[in-house]
Amino acid sequence: MSRSKIRFYPYVLNVVVILFTILLFCDHGFSADFYPNRSVRLLVPFSPGGGVDALARIMAPRLLELTGVVWVVDNRGGAGGNIAAETVARAAPDGYTVLMGFNTILTVNPGLYKLNYSVENDLLPVSMLAHAQYILVVHPSVPATSLKDFIALAKSKPGQLNYASAGIGTAVHLAAELFKSRAGIDMVHLAYKGGGPAAAAVLAGEAQVIFASVASSVAQIKQGKLKGLATTGSQRSKVMPELPTVAESGYPGFDVGSWYALFLPAKTPSPILHKLQTAAHKVVAFDDVQLAMSRQGLEVDVSNAQRLRDKIKSETKVWTELIKSADIKLQ
Amino acid sequence: MEILSGLFNGFSIALQPLNLLWCFAGVFLGTVVGIMPGLGPAATIAMLLPLTFGMPPTSGLIMLAGIYYGAKYGGSTTAILLNVPGESASVVTCLDGYQMARNGRAGAALGIAAISSFVAGTVGVLGLMLLAPPLAKIALSFSSPEYFALMILGLAMVVLLAGDSMIKALLAMLFGLWIASMGIDLFTDASRFTFGSAELLDGIDFVVVAIGIFALGEVFANMEMQGGASLLPVPKGMRELLPTMAELKACRFAFFNGSVVGFIIGVLPGAGSTIASFISYGLEKAVSKHPEKFGTGVPEGVAAPEGANNSETGGALVPLLTLGIPGSGTTAILLAAFVLWGLRPGPLMIQDNPELFWGLVASMYVGNVMLLILNLPLIPLFAQILKLREYILYPIIFGISIVGIYTSSSSFFDCWMLSLFGLLGYLMRRLDYPTAPLILGLVLGDSMERALRQSLMMSQGDLSILYHRPIAATLLFISLLLVCLPLFRNFNQWRIRAIEDNG
């Protein structure tokens, strides 16, 4: 009995070592074929709650179906999303760390923060997922029923209208600043901590104007608590097609919105990139993902990586110039 | 009549077996995350959100709301037993709850917390049911100047929280206000007191300070008493573990006070449950016949804040359901849930979805009963933790605190900050500085500054906006009274002494 045991152990040990060595080789040499073979971290650049987080969490089980591995939603909030983006930029380029990107992190933050990484050089765009636009809404007491009226009113009362935002450097703040500079009007910025208090301020009439998300303002507009004047995208919103866009009302090229996209570390090999691109295109086709998107006022948009790259470049230019000219500073 | 039929309809929904199950799952999970410091209801609801996506909205809401108010029940447990506030709203419970535990009344403190939570939770639901639509208007009538006045009222509570030395209390409060000012200034984008560190740009998290000062500070201070420290007395038998009639009687007013204050402050989206619990604690102390005993373990000091933070949930659902305005991180996530379910909270939401509103209200009655039944039998079990020897108990507190902070932010920087504030808490104990005023300053500082500056932007720099509005003026007047009363009392005592000396 005891003799057979002694012989048995070295044998098992050998097999283990050999298997382990094979595994090691697999991980290096054939990683793309075997990718993904362990769980993937999906970094959400904000703390739990809110649209980006909800979308990531609804996509995660579908991504498991598509790729066969678990996608762990990892919330890394802070510093306007830079912490999550930097984590991905510095992660091993093996496809197991993915960023759920939100537009301001990639296009606004480079002009606003001193970043420890480069959006252009350290991040690899995988695919766009969805985009949304904002609605320019005013308190019902504002005597304007169209964008033209409103601009005339603001011009006649410079510095007397307040606009609310969810904080410095948020998309809503910059949308309003861009609008101010294009329309040549002067409004006072009231910053609130988050979208909730900002919306409350406009409902209460403390501020008169806000660029609100479709999801948060449609019910209020339909019930007459707020007045919608225009949408901010390049095309009319599907949810409120009766509203004109700012661009068609005399400010061509005005196109502000939010968008979501996936990113990898820059040096990720292209077979992995392609696998993820396929998964991204498939995941937005699931019914529940589409439903979640449409209820949040998002429209599916799977523009390819090159168009995403161009979009980042052109938007970064717009925002960086605006941040300079409007003198918005964080540090 | 309409309310009765609505409620009847609601109970027929809430008592469906499946909804009962969801309700239980919610309150059970809520209790668990409430007990664990760091892991809060907000993160839990966010994680479960996708799960409820395929459920009928009413069932989903019943479960998520269960987590929300269930967490308020659990938060008091670690506050009382270990001086670790499980939720930010439980900070005030530490003050008297932990002292009660040290006096051997841990079971009674837990029992009072549970009963007070039940009473106030039920009052909060009653308020939500009866007053939601008219109250929504009040929520909007509170604008920045009113919030500023409310925060001033909160700060005036420092008079009541101070121990022997008013100067030390004020210093501690100023320190709290200073910590609150760290990070990026919301208006001028300047970074303040960040010492060039990117981690400090978002300021210091309240939980880090509270757990550091309360829990770690306590551990450090106790470690000093080597050998000399004896085990906390843990009474045996069910009778000793439950509050006595006398203790419950002492809490009569606190149950009422906590319920009403909590609900009213809950309705205001800009205030929050921590402020509610501070104000009801202060009110309790102000009207008490023995204010000097607060902080040494009086049952009212547990009942008032625990009640307030539970009825606050009912209040906070008012602006959420009737205006679509969330007042806290947790209600913001509930709002996200509504959007995902395809509902749009707003003035017509209750009218358009009566089964959802009444189902929720009825489930909250049911859930509060469940929580009471769930929590009372657990008390003897939880109280056993005090039987542990220090060399086991203190490392446990240490571990729970660090793990709690790390799970809430996944940042090592916060863990370092935690130990820093632990040392500060130790120093404050050694030098006899009260810790509650620091927390008060920290909780109020940020929102107070914001409210003040928003008011001044609205009025273009005219200070009169702060006292020309009736609600703001009333609140400021009460604060002034509160600050001046002890002065009068001192003056009176001095006068009596002077007369006696003369005579």
Concise synopsis of the structure shown:
The complex is a heterodimer of chains A (331) and B (503). By secondary structure, chain A is of the alpha/beta class.
* Domains of chain B, number: 1
Overall spatial form of chain A:
elongated
The number of distinct structural domains of chain A comes to 2
Structural class, from helix and strand content of chain A? Answer: alpha/beta
Low-confidence stretches of chain B: none
Strand content of chain A: 15-25%
Put simply, the count of helices of chain A is: 14
How are the strands ordered across the major sheet of chain B? 1-2
Instruction: Quickly give the CATH architecture of the largest domain in chain A.
Output: 3-Layer(aba) Sandwich
What is the mean predicted local confidence, pLDDT of chain A?
Answer: 86
Major sheet attributes of chain A: 8 strands, mixed
Chart the SSEs and their pairings.
The complex is a heterodimer of chains A (331) and B (503).
Chain A (H helix, E strand, L loop, with lengths): L1 H28 L1 H4 L5 E5 L6 H17 L3 E5 L6 H9 L6 E6 H5 L1 H4 L6 H4 E16 L8 H10 L5 E4 L5 H13 L4 E4 L3 H9 L5 E5 H9 L4 E5 L25 E9 L4 H14 L3 H9 L3 E2 L4 H21 L6
Parallel strand pairs in A: 1-2, 1-3, 5-6
Antiparallel strand pairs in A: 3-9, 4-7, 4-8, 4-9, 4-10
Chain B lengths: L1 H13 L2 H19 L5 H12 L4 H26 L8 H12 L3 H36 L2 H13 L1 H4 L4 H15 L2 E2 L6 E2 L13 H19 L13 H4 L3 H6 L1 H16 L5 H15 L12 H24 L5 H12 L8 H4 L1 H22 L2 H6 L6 H20 L2 H19 L5 H23 L11 H33 L1
Helix pairs in contact in B: 1-18, 2-4, 2-18, 3-4, 3-16, 4-5, 4-6, 4-15, 4-16, 4-18, 5-6, 5-15, 6-13, 6-15, 6-18, 7-22, 7-23, 9-22, 10-20, 10-21, 13-14, 13-15, 14-15, 20-21
Explain what you see.
The complex is a heterodimer of chains A (331) and B (503). In chain A, 47% of the residues lie in helices and 18% in strands. Chain A has helices at residues 2-29, 31-34, 51-67, 82-90, 103-107, 109-112, 119-122, 147-156, 171-183, 195-203, 214-222, 270-283, 287-295, 305-325; strands spanning 40-44, 71-75, 97-102, 123-138, 162-165, 188-191, 209-213, 227-231, 257-265, 299-300. Chain B is globular. With 503 residues, chain B is mainly α. Chain B has one domain. Chain B has a two-stranded antiparallel ribbon. Chains A and B meet through helix 3, strand 6, helix 10, helix 11 and helix 13 of A and helix 3, helix 6, helix 16 and helix 22 of B.
